[in-house]
Fold these 4 entries.
Entry 1:
Amino acid sequence: MSPRLIPMLALVKDTFREAFARKIFWGFAGCCTALLAFLVFIMRIDVVAGALATITIFGRAMPTTDVQGLVQQTQSVIAMSMYFFGMALSVFASAGLVAAVFEPGRIELLLSKPVSRTQILLGRYIGNLAVVAANILYLTFGSWIIFGIKTGLWGGGYLLSSLFTIFVFGVLLAVIVLIGVLWESAAVAIMATFGIMIVTPILAQRATIERLLSADWSRDLVTVFYYILPKTSDISVIIRHLILNEPVDSWMPVWSTALFGAVVLAAGILHFRRRSF
Amino acid sequence: MPEYAIETENLTKVFRTRWPRRELTAVDNISLRVPVGSTYGLLGPNGAGKTTFVKMLLSASHPTAGRAIVFGRDSREPGARAPIGYLPENHRFPTYMTGWDMLDFYGALSGMGASERRARIPGLLSQVGLDERAHHLRLGKYSKGMLQRVGLAQALMHTPRLLVLDEPSDGVDPVGRRQIRDVLHALEQKGVTIFLNSHLLAEVELFCREVAIIQKGKLALSGTVLELTSGSGYRLEISGASETLETELRGRARTAGAANGMLQLLFASREEANQALDLARANHCEIETFGRTRSTLEEVFMKTVEGE
């Protein structure tokens, strides 16, 4: 192994170890396992000759549509739950993991090692992202396999959707990192990230908002904020389109969100490199 | 091979607050040289700037002016910190790790391979006095003394050429202190440079050959312990002196006194002391002690700090 990789892997492994110790990893894994168990044992789907016969939840037969529609709708519900609730939980858990690195008495020792500050921050960032990604992939792959076995449908859109969820979490994690570096506060990081998660769906309705605003400058302001901030709401629509095998209108929300994440992460690294502890 | 393990050139750190606009000079233009293989103590009262100075050496804090050089390289380069082993004062080791995990983690950060780390950890933990049970115990369960020991083991993990220790025996019992001192002595024999930041003046005096005293961010005094503690005068103690001789000697001495039947005399120069010694011998007096006066490091420290 390259000597440059050894410290990076140690930092990633350390983040996992801390997530295990704080029960964050096991908390996520427990929730995912419970949902998978629900799909395996509680939801029964009987497919006869490629068409859905019945769907039974808690022993009760439900009104049915076609099998593909049912699977896609269910996958869509799981993906959206993971996207919004899972994301909120992940932000809550990750803020503490990032801020912990900057604790006095811990950061000095890390900085005394022959590792660049960029490596230290990226190691923590990647580790944190990997903790959340492992759980998202576990739930997505697990449910995809269960649906595949029960219905014989193995569409790839649902799998692809998990990558977008991880991507958006990566962008929000960049915000957590920047705020962690600036103020070493998990609480401020959570508030700012939740703020973005609340404001961006509102900004996504900018056509309606602009109709309600009379001044040009206020309409421009809404447009500027819309383009600058990550487009969590628009990406959730893209995820739904992917799962339902529908065409995606525009990829702009993805690349502009990626740009936001890259700029924020770079700002975090730059500030960390300049900071004195 | 560089001559100095640590070299600072006009190292300065000014802390500034934007609102209200204030400035605090924590380290003020310090130039210091620590020779390779030496044992060097950094002393100063609380708030003198010692910790900030050490943080700049390790590049945890960036200097406002000047620079810190470690074995000929600017300490801001990550590679320059490879030969440094550091034990911070108010350390916060990750409590979810075991002693073994901690050494493995910090060893990896120093670029050591997995097999090298596995081979080194057990011996090192034993060397600092941690038994096998402690190897796999979480750090959250460690006592303060055990944390100091594992912290020292962490600093030694990658076989450093320079050890920077901030209060290494803080919270350690006397037996543990002795063990730590023995470890440090063994490292000194191997040529490792040891830079000690400690409030325990007796410990510094016992262990370090050179010291520097920082006061209000400035370098107030530096030199070898021997130089700094050696007094400027000479002491002569005799017994069996006649009244006439005693009067004569008291007249020549800078200060004189008597205790336990002995005449105690202090002379300003070696010549005066030698003349008095010759006189005492010629008068068949018993010479009890003769030598240079000495002060303790604590006396030197107090004089320096209070003299400001």
Entry 2:
Amino acid sequence: MSRVRVLVGTRKGAFVLNADGKREKWDVSGPFFPGWEIYHVAGSPADPDRLFASQSSGWFGQVIQRSDDGGATWETVGNEFSYDGATGTHQWYDGTPHPWEFARVWHLEPAPDDPDTVYAGVEDAGLFKSTDGGQHWAELPGLRTHRSGPSWQPGAGGMCLHTIILDPAHPGRMYAAISAAGAFRSDDYGQTWEPVNRGLHSEGIPDEDAEVGHCVHRIAMHPSRPEVLYMQKHWDVMRTDDAGGSWHEISGNLPTDFGFPIGVHAHEPDTVYVVPITSDSHHFPPEGKLRVYRSRTGGDDWQALTRGLPQAHCYVNVLRDAMAVDSLEDCGVYFGTTGGQVYASADAGDNWAPIVRDLPAVLSVEVQTLS
Amino acid sequence: MIRVVLPAHLRTLARVDGEVELRVEGEVTQRAVLDALEARYPVLRGTIRGHGGGPRRAFVRFFACEQDLSHESPDAPLPAAVAAGTEPYLIVGAMAGG
């Protein structure tokens, strides 16, 4: 029987939650690495028992942990993330040049076909790759050194590369997203990159439809239709049907234009999930009601999903890496909050329940579907 | 032997309890102590100072004999009591964040 493993990164450690395919009873283990910020925990599709965790601290910097037994035990691997060559500058918040400085790993993306290969998206924005299970990391500098790099600027959380998507149908094609530079695509295994932001429109930058400078919060893809991407942006939910060639807005009847995560149903490429947040200045759900919105039409037409979610006095946030889906027949959807709850739905969002409560603020949620 | 006290998070990372004792060849400086520490516990590389003996991390402080040595030259001799092992060399996470 299939089972699921939920990997949760929080402000104060990592947690691993296991359940059988019914997804009713959960075994919670952790905290692993207590006291440290765990921005992301991710499992290798090629070897699901191989997990990688980004462990960091404002005091003691970056550590990468690896497990080869599904999270029961962990070992430290390489933590040297050195930019390749001259680092140059990007824009600081006030528009002045600011040197590129490594702060932390935001996102780990294991390769689908090799358990030793994993990509890391870091702050200040850069893309790194390891081909030895995380022992050594080398930058793919073509992204950071793109001609537009000096004009990139940090979002409120820092200038982070938070999204890495590997196209399963086009060898060498990958996407990265940076706050606040935008979305980028490579067709040569990450050697060279081009912005793919046409159609995005953002307030707060001098040219509202500029080539770069957009605060992209998250991008999601369904593997069966990789030319379609969905984006939750600082403002608006967007969609491209041509691999980033152009984007159009699909916010439709959503109650707000702001939010962080976006996800796609495991078996329905037109079923999309977002969690609207009031605004960039009010990082909590509108009206104090925690609602996931689901579109079954690839956007524009959205339905509020509320059953089992708090509908009064709820002022948590759901961060960009904190939503995931499993691939069981009845697709499970999961998200974590800054209030420490991890909610799950075993029926594609119709009904929700917390599978764990009162964790530290949740930074990331990943789900593995195991046989 | 040089006695080194690590902050709690780094003791956990290095999987040690209590003080660390290190043998340091030659002159006992902060650099020599940190080199010996990182050689014994490679997991600490990058957590106290930059890789390859780089600068002290901003939120890490070095104390010994009731003195703040954070801004001393890494190649200056440590106090004789540290070199003799009668006083520990303290690696401390800066007091910040409440």
Entry 3:
Amino acid sequence: MLGINTQALFGQLLLGLINGSFYALLSLGLAVIFGMLNIINFAHGALFMMGAFCAYFLLTWFDLNYWWALVLAPLIIGAFGIVIQHTLLRRIAGLDHLYSLLLTFGLALIIQGVFLNYYGSSGLPYAIPTALQGGTNLGFMFLPNYRAWVVVVSLVVCLATWFLIERTRFGSYLRAATENPQLVSAFGINVPLMITLTYGLGVGLAALAGVLAAPINQVRPLMGADFIIVVFAVVVIGGMGSILGSIVTGFALGIIEGLTKYFYPEASNTVVFLLMVLVLLVKPTGLTGKAA
Amino acid sequence: MTTTTARQDAQPRRTIGDELTVFIVMAILLVIVPLTSIYPYFVMQALCFALFACAFNLFLGYSGLLSFGHAMFLGTAGYVCGHAAKVWGFSPELAILAGTAASAVLGLLSGIVAIRRQGIYFAMITLGLAQLMYFFYLQAKFTHGEDGIQGIPQGMLFGFLDLSKPMTLYYVVVAVFLLAFLLIWRIINSPFGEVLKSIRENEQRAISLGYKVDRYKLMAFVLSATLSGLAGAVKVIVAQNASLTDVHWSMSGEVVLMVLLGGLGTIYGPVVGAFLVIAMQQYLAGAGQWVVVIQGVIFVVCVMTFRRGIVGEVAHLFKRSL
């Protein structure tokens, strides 16, 4: 069974799709935050990891299962993000962008370092919820139910975020405030509040991705550290100008990575970065982005 | 995007005299270290990182672009130098030269790619390129993966200086550092350096004055990469091993920390920052991951409260440039 090539190929494609779901959720969060705050959130990987740990804590300390975690972890970590934004990021708004990058990098080091001290670098197990255990045989491949669930949930959440920003009244305020904050606040809209909520939303998306990843990747302090560098490359390739663009690029690059794992595994770690170089040489603004 | 350039308020009149005085004091201190109880190996290591930080600062401080992938230059030069000295049997000066040249070439190639984007994107691109190199070195045969290249021979510099003697090695490292430092100082004070500063302050105006801005940035990037390579190559000769630590993204972060702590865009800041960060790692070696947490806290504190860095604050206090 396992030796058959199509099995392995579809297996890698599915893994790619899963990774693509995380890339999409994380790069979407980065794009939303960038649009409103004009910063790159280097702590995004650490917050993704906190989402997974939050799910683990909810289960072991409060006996709240996966379904609770799916709702509560994004809210809790999102609130944590709001505190960070309110106490730190808000105070350096308007300074050269490099300071926000360095600040969030420092925060990532602190968060990861603290978790490493208490939990080491090995992973903590987090069981797949009973309702999603097992799998379905599709004839050409075996599809684990949980993995299908992850892809579906992240697609739905991505599209919901797109809908929120591009199609609702709140989203139109948000987009207007991105273009011209002074004018929008002159219309009586509380722009600082919107900035804070946006950061919370982006962080919540990262935490949600963390909860989804917990049963697959185990809960590890460094689970987001290398991941976020790939997501940065995804963001460079896709450009941060369009919400839909970052979703599509995220999924597409996950799939490409999966295909590379099958056809040329040696390059699977580097293919996203090589694509980044290629895109920069051909279309420096990124596939969907406007000039920075 | 209207952002204030962070360093412009910390630029008082240039006083070459002060800078020279400090240089002479620094040189004398370095020469007399072996007479004190300070461990020379620590100073040599710190000097390599100080050179690395100065090279990094040459680019960030004077072009305003944050590279988050400078570890690739430190590490590449280290691997090439180590391999040349150990496997090819190069003499130390040729091995160091080979390593430095490798970083220069890598600097040119990565610069051509990265200079195409600015601001935040530049940081992400350089980080991605460095990660690409990291995975390359992780898989390449000659680097020996997780083990690294060990037991690199130190050999005879120019055929008569035996680098396996600690005192000889120490003074050679001090000489390399001081010469490279003077070179960086010269670059900053050259017409080329002035153009760089004008691009940092107002890129549009520099363009309208007819400067080919991208070429200046690329040139500065290649210079910075080359000198980072020199630091990496010398470091490998000192430590006698080349490992993945030097190409990891955390090393790229560490050099940013050194420069930020010491003072961005100041001449002596990177040196002070490098010595402090290396000393901290040395004394807190037993504290495990808390070192990383402390580094993170320093980042946050520096960004929130003293963005000029230590040397920058001192210089500001005395209204001097240092």
Entry 4:
Amino acid sequence: MPVEGARKIPLSCVVNGAAVTCEAYPMARLLDVLREELKLTGTKEGCGEGECGACSIEMDGALVNSCLVPALQAEGATIRTIEGVTCGGSLHAVQQAFITHGGAQCGICTPGMILAAVNLLARYPQPDDAQIRDGLSGNLCRCTGYMKIFESVVAAARDAEIRA
Amino acid sequence: MRAYLPAYEMETPRDLAAALSRMAAEPGAWRAFAGGTDLMVLLEAGKLPHRKFLNIWNLAELRGIAASAEHVTLGALTTYAEVQRHEILAREFPLLCRAAAETGSVATQNRGTLGGNIANASPAADSPPAMIVYDAEIEIVSAGGARWVPYASFHTGYKKMNLRAGELIRSIRVARPRSAWKQYFRKVGARRAQAISKICFAAAGCVEAGRIAEVRIALGSVAPTVLRAARTEELLRGQRLESAALLLAAQDALGAEITPIDDMRSTGRYRRNVARNLLAEFLEVLAS
């Protein structure tokens, strides 16, 4: 019989603007809590070891790999996933740019890419090329060759500037 | 194989004193868990040996960066992102900021901590060479008190360190440079972003009246621990930089004190050659 050390704990946090509670083992991956308990399956699992960025989310405003966050550390946190990126029912400028500029192909990396780009533009509204590359460097894509993703982020930043 | 989650306990102590008394009550049973960038990888691979963890992520006593005239003291939970954002560190400790910028991605830098990087004890870690160059000291606390340990003697062998059961790394203190040192950092990996080092080289020094007055050299991924190249430093100290024989002698000294191995990331031979080349590049920077 395996050793039963831990019990599930009640977990309360704010996800995409709504207060939620659920139960999870303290060291369950936040990625699994989001997908399996909260049914937010937009966040993807790629490598499961913090290398690929497919599970990127924002936690208290910081970009994190949700596969490396234990559930207990999400207690009381404010979380944004890809489901919370749209503004009032319309696409975020980054999402629109990915569509317009072909930044998505198979789609597995896309939620993480978009979270990384949204987080980058929050920190640097007018990023230079190096800042964009750095901001996306933790997100791997096996389809696009990256240039269309890079161009999507350039366009999103430019569109935001035009609107401002 | 994935981990069996019910086997892993994790608690959040309300403050540092509570964490330390928990660790003292069951010596060796409870391990500190910070940003999880190393431990969660082991968990997912089914290779996390310990079963009981204290979530120290929110302990205010382990956070913050404070500067005095002599030192900058960084809480053990200082993240790589916080290192890069700090004005004094950016100005006076560029090696630490470069190491932080070249460790993992934005997401890793938001969660990975200096204390965790030290306690994970990897010889391939990128911030320790910089910390050695800056004569870092580590503050270690337990329910019984606190002690300071020079970082250069903290790691005693592969994944071995001077940290007893019940002890926790509380802060890291680096000495503020007194003069205009020339500083050099280079990490060599398979790619620019997100790679673990094949070799990491951090060094600083100053030249007075044509002679090397002070020099510090530290390397990652060339020995069972991150290594201070003390014998190479000794050979360089007091020497004239334009001496043609100096570079070769220093390269040989460095080659004699590193013991790089063949592994999945590189070969011992490659690492040895690159170490020599990086030393040459550092001496060029020092002479410039």
